[in-house]
């Protein structure tokens, strides 16, 4: 019988027992099955014994303690065929093979290479194999086994979910759950007591206790008062090894806060509060503050104040300040030192939310006494009425009494008072007041149509002490009387068409009156009474404040008469009644087919002038013709003046550029298209010689001046004063020359230097009126000029 044999180290008896306990029962059953098979073969008379199949061990686990730094043998593997001849080679593979574990290939001993940590890896699964060294054939099939790392107590328990904060209501009963702390240990909970924890209180007794196994903290003190102590720090310790010596421990802090309950009532710290307030204090003035102390907080400390007394609850009110929970006493009615000088009240404070579990209803209420003293103040006069309103007819005579105002000094001194009218309220000075008794009278005539109301401010001032004053408004309404004449509503311009029939309405009239009678306006329309009836028109009163002008006949033509005058009388219904007369001009019009009379344009103008339309059009045509001719003549004269001014061209002063060389200039210039001018043509004057001939220099003088300048030209330059003066003289001469062309042209002069065999290039010296010599060849012979600017001889040949 061949098989694997394992020899284990002896770390503990328990480890050996576990190895054999983990051997599967299949091995033994397989052995019993093999024996049964051999017996059956013998019973059948078989002469050949079959060899039993080799079966190796199937190892489940080996054990090695953690944190052991010393390499050690933890077990040995050996095949049944190993006879100690070192012919068997043992090979180890799997987790940690060669790194954590190694096997002696000759003896099969398994050895650790380094210390192990169970918390990192709790077991290793490995495979073992036995190979014949000479044939390299397996002696045993590969088997798998497990090496388990044994736990030791090498980890400290740790609290989870820190920090711990909890709150419980004050006055809670004993055993009230506060919080639960939880700790964990990384050691193996299935091996010994390494991970078995127990809790205890280090700080917080006798108020709190903890369940040793669950970590639940509960109260152990009755009636804990928040007002005495609001917060507790409970320190809880946890130990492994069930608290035995040699174990590890750790601690945590649990912050326990007591929440408030309404177990305190309001309490006034004073039995009497005294305040003083001036009698002229405004309504809403804060008289004072009272405070009832309450040890509770939040909603349990909220309270309501009230005042009790005979009149005090209406003169003063009290409100609760929502921030400070103080009672604020406010003035609700005006005070008068002369009427009442002191107020005694009772103030009460009551909790808004009561809890009868802790106190009775009476304990949530407290009372105190409040005394308010009124201080005397010098007050201004007080009018007997806050406002005065009077009515007065507009025809009231000057000096008429309108009414009287009255004020008194409410102080005990009772100072005398003088009255006056504020000038800003009575700018027209229509009223005056008696300064002693306040009687107001009319000072100027009144007119309702100008001002229907007068708002007068009357001031009353004390004559002694502080001269305090007060004022009151007096409203004076001016009543209307019938003092205005009615008139027509607008400026009517009625017209009647030539084809109007008798009885037709010509114009509808209405009237206005500035007066304002109580019963309203009612106007009457009529014609001026005459000795005979108006044969042309009549007025029909419509009895609704309107009237119509009606034609009496049908024969109206513009040839007979173009206009008619009609006086209209308008009367009102006042007492006494007033009337007014207005004269209307009724024009006779040649109306359009629709009955419209033109009020603008040529036709209307002709009608107003009393002429025919044809005559008016002829006059307008003549006026337009004369206007056009006048405009044409003005334009022609202006055109001629512009042409004449164009011929008289002013020549501006010559300014020589500084950048242009002024040594040599050409007299003539090429014609248009490159054609040269013909110098053989005789000189013809362009315009008559002017009378101012005496100003023109003689040609001989000019020649002499040029020759003199030429002789000195080699000594001067363009910037020399002599040269500039020469140019200015030539410019003045050209401006006064009557033979000059009537357009701008260039006068050119040159300094040639001295000793030139070609002579002068100047036009004044090269052409003369006395000589008849032909100069048809405009090109002079070439000659060498005096070198300028330091040039060589060969560069000066022209």
TrEMBL record:
Subcellular location: Cell membrane
SMART domains per record: CA
Comp. bias (Low complexity): 756-774
Segments for region (Disordered): 756-778
Pfam families referenced in this protein's UniProt entry, alphabetically: CADH_Y-type_LIR, Cadherin
Any one GO molecular function term: cadherin binding
GO biological process: adherens junction organization; calcium-dependent cell-cell adhesion via plasma membrane cell adhesion molecules; cell migration; cell morphogenesis; cell-cell adhesion mediated by cadherin; cell-cell junction assembly; homophilic cell adhesion via plasma membrane adhesion molecules; morphogenesis of an epithelium
Transmembrane spans: 616-636
Keywords: Calcium, Cell adhesion, Cell membrane, Glycoprotein, Membrane, Metal-binding, Repeat, Signal, Transmembrane, Transmembrane helix
Chain ranges of the Cadherin domain: 79-159, 160-268, 269-383, 384-488, 488-600
GO cellular component, one term: adherens junction
Membrane topology: Single-pass type I membrane protein
Functional summary from the UniProt entry: Cadherins are calcium-dependent cell adhesion proteins.
Protein's name in the database: Cadherin-12
Source organism of the structure: Haplochromis burtoni (Burton's mouthbrooder)
């Amino acid at each position: 019988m061949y098989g694997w044999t394992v020899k284990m180290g002896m770390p503990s008896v328990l480890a050996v027992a576990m190895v054999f306990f983990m051997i599967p029962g299949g091995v033994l059953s397989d052995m019993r099955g093999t024996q049964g098979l051999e017996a059956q073969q013998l019973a059948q008379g078989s002469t050949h014994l079959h060899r039993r199949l080799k079966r190796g061990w199937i190892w489940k686990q080996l054990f090695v303690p953690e944190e052991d730094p010393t390499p050690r043998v933890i077990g040995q593997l050996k095949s049944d065929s190993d006879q100690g001849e070192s012919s068997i080679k043992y090979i180890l593979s799997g987790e940690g093979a060669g790194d954590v574990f190694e096997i002696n290939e000759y003896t099969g001993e398994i050895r650790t290479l380094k210390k192990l940590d169970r918390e990192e890896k709790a077991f290793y699964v490995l495979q073992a194999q036995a190979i014949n060294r000479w044939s390299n054939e397996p002696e045993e099939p590969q088997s798998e086994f497990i090496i388990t790392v044994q736990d030791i107590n090498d980890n400290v328990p740790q609290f989870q979910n820190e920090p711990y904060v909890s709150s419980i209501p004050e006055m809670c009963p004993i055993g009230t759950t506060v919080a639960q702390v939880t700790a964990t240990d990384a050691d193996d909970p299935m091996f010994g007591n390494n991970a078995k924890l127990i809790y205890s209180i280090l700080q917080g007794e006798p108020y709190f206790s903890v369940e040793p196994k669950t970590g639940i903290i509960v109260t152990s003190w009755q009636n804990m008062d928040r007002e005495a102590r609001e917060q507790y720090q409970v320190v809880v310790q946890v130990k492994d090894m069930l608290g035995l010596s040699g174990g590890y421990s750790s601690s945590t802090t649990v912050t326990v806060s007591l929440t408030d309950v309404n177990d305190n009532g309001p309490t006034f710290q004073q039995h009497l509060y005294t305040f003083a307030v001036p009698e002229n204090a405004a309504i809403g003035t804060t008289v004072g503050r009272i405070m009832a102390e309450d040890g509770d907080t939040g909603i349990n400390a909220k309270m309501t104040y009230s005042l009790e007394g005979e009149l005090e609850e209406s003169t003063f009110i009290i409100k609760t300040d929502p921030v400070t929970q103080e009672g604020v006493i406010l003035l609700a009615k005006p005070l008068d030192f002369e009427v009442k000088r002191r107020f005694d009240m009772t103030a009460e404070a009551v909790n808004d939310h009561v809890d009868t579990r802790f106190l009775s209803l009476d304990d949530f209420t407290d009372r105190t006494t409040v005394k308010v003293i009124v201080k005397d103040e010098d007050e201004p006069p007080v009018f007997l009425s806050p406002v005065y309103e009077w009515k007065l007819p507009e025809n009231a005579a000057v000096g008429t009494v309108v009414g009287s105002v009255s004020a008194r000094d409410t102080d005990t001194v009772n100072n005398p008072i003088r009255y006056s009218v504020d000038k800003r309220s009575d700018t027209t000075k229509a009223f005056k007041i008696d300064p002693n008794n306040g009687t107001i009278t009319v000072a100027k005539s009144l007119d309702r149509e100008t001002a229907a109301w007068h708002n007068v401010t009357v001031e009353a001032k004390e004559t002694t002490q502080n001269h305090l004053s007060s004022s009151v408004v007096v409203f004076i309404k001016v009543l209307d009387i019938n003092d205005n004449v009615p008139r027509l509503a607008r400026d009517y311009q009625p017209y009647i068409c030539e084809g109007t029939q008798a009885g037709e309405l010509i114009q509808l009239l209405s009237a206005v009156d500035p007066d304002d009678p109580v019963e309203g306006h009612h106007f009457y329309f009529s014609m001026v009474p005459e000795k005979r009836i108006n044969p042309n028109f009549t007025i029909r009163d419509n009895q609704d404040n309107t009237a119509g002008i009606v034609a009496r006949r049908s024969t109206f033509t513009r040839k007979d008469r173009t206009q008619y005058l009609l006086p209209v009388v308008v009367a009102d219904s006042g007492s006494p009644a007033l009337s007014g007369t207005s004269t209307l001009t009724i024009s006779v019009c040649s109306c359009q087919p629709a009955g419209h009379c033109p009020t603008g344009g040529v036709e209307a103008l002709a009608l107003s002038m009393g002429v025919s339309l044809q005559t008016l059009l002829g006059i307008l045509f003549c006026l337009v013709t004369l206007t056009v001719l006048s405009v044409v003549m003005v334009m022609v004269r202006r055109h001629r003046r512009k042409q004449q001014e164009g011929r008289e061209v002013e020549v501006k002063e010559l300014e020589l550029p500084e950048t242009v060389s002024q040594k040599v200039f050409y007299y003539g210039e090429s014609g248009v298209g490159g054609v040269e001018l013909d110098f053989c043509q005789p000189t013809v004057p362009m315009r008559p010689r002017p009378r101012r001939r005496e100003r023109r220099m003689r040609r001989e003088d000019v020649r002499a001046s040029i020759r003199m300048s030429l002789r000195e030209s080699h000594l001067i330059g363009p910037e020399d004063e002599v040269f500039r003066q020469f140019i200015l003289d030539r410019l003045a001469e050209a401006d006064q020359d009557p033979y000059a062309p009537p357009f701008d042209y260039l006068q050119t002069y040159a300094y040639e230097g001295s000793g030139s065999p070609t002579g002068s290039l100047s036009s004044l010296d090269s052409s003369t009126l006395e000589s008849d010599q032909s100069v048809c060849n405009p090109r002079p012979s070439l000659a060498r000029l005096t070198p300028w600017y330091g040039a060589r001889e060969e560069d000066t040949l022209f």
